[in-house]
Amino acid sequence: MSLTRRTFLTSAAALAVARPGAAAPGPAVLEAREGMAQILPAEYPATAIWGYDGLTPGPEIRVLQGGRIERRLTNALPQPTAVHWHGIRIDNAMDGVPGLTQDAVAPGGSFDYAFVVPDAGTFWYHSHAASMEQVARGLHGPLIVEEAEAPEVDADHVLVLDDWRLDRDGALVEPMANFHDLSHAGRLGNVITVNGSVGHTVPAARHARLRLRLINAANARIQVLSLDGLEGWTVALDGMPLEVPQPVAGRFSLAPAQRIDLIVDVTADTEAFVVDHHPDGGYALITLPVSGTASAARRPTPAPLPPNPVRSVGHLDDALSVPVLMEGGAMGGMMGAMMNGGRMGMREMMRSGQFWALNGTVGLPQAPLVEAARGRTVRFDLINDTAFPHGMHVHGHHFREVQADGTLGPWRDTILVDAGARREVAMAADNPGDWLLHCHMLGHQTAGMKTWFRVA
Ligand code: C2O
Ligand code: CU
Hints:
Layout: H1 2-18, E1 28-37, E2 47-52, E3 61-64, E4 68-75, E5 83-86, E6 110-116, E7 121-127, H2 131-136, E8 140-146, E9 155-164, H3 179-183, E10 191-194, E11 200-201, E12 204-205, E13 209-216, E14 223-228, E15 230-237, E16 240-247, E17 252-254, E18 259-266, E19 271-278, E20 281-291, E21 320-328, E22 336-339, E23 342-345, H4 346-351, E24 356-358, E25 361-362, E26 371-372, E27 376-384, E28 390-394, E29 399-402, E30 408-412, E31 414-417, E32 422-429, E33 433-439, H5 442-446, E34 450-455
Parallel strand pairs: 1-4, 3-8, 9-13, 11-20, 12-20, 21-27, 22-25, 26-34
Antiparallel strand pairs: 1-2, 4-6, 5-7, 7-8, 9-10, 13-18, 14-17, 14-19, 15-16, 15-18, 19-20, 21-24, 22-23, 27-32, 28-31, 28-33, 29-30, 29-32, 33-34
């Protein structure tokens, strides 16, 4: 006993010596730094990326629902940075938005994130500083919050989809932003990866039941997917369980930042696929080589995942209704907008790389879009008066779509609003603080498509 204790003390002292300045053990470190990743097939050179702990995707963070996450972000990048914990209904001070909830962390600096995760589900974390560049360079990772009673599956796979614009030497095509991308669909890539490499495979047993957690970490690409040799159900969207699992039939799409949790049974004999559909055809994004001879007995529909403790939307009739008009971009016909407190013509906006506006303002306005009393029901009326789709994301809250027939859709944190479309979402604004509402096509966000609201 005493020997064990002595050994422990000695090694603890040795650690303290080995890491000067680390007298008290701090939280686990998440370092934003440069790294090399084999994104292209092995015969091509590796890619210089920026990643958490030098990896892309970054290390998986996994915690039990209701648990606490503590990470010390250290910045070894040549630029300021910050981490946003996407989809977590978080303490505002931990939301990771420079200029709104914290100062960006300078090169060489650090910031301690510590927060409780109220909801179980599939989430992710990513840079929210110069995010068009930093996320495109690889600064994102999965954040999985486990249910106390997880559904019974044979395997649980986290699958982070990304989209890279690389040249033949595997290098990121520079510059990271150009006026064409900013004013059109954003930085679309030419290489699509799953968990950081092309041609991802997931070995599976015959008739196995799998949970697939798909996360779209791409800057701009809307993924259109289907299943082949797999039969299953959508059980959660953006981390929030569906009340009733929905059979997957045909194609489904995943806008940037969106997640989908599927429970699927392997029905193929030799190979199953997750297929990615492009205008010029489909290809196997994920291949599941099938082995073994498990029983072919059909399994029942999975039970719904346990619901998360989200506050119900409340009364729609006396809600605070807030129009959010999206304007600008190529072929959008916008003449000008408010920028930095003054009126600007489109030409002037363009000269500073700004192309998009929400309610006539480019970038974050001085005053919040709306200030809601805590608990108040808020309806955002998302009106897309542009020639492009936008994936609109609300920080700190999940919302439900108010559908055409007045019923409420599933809980989400990001909704795709097609060109020319109008979608309305509602939520109880119950998380105090200052929160972003922005397009998660990061080129659009960079070029003006963002605003903020306050819950007091
Ligand atoms: Cu994924 Cu403003 O965030
Ligand atoms: Cu957009």
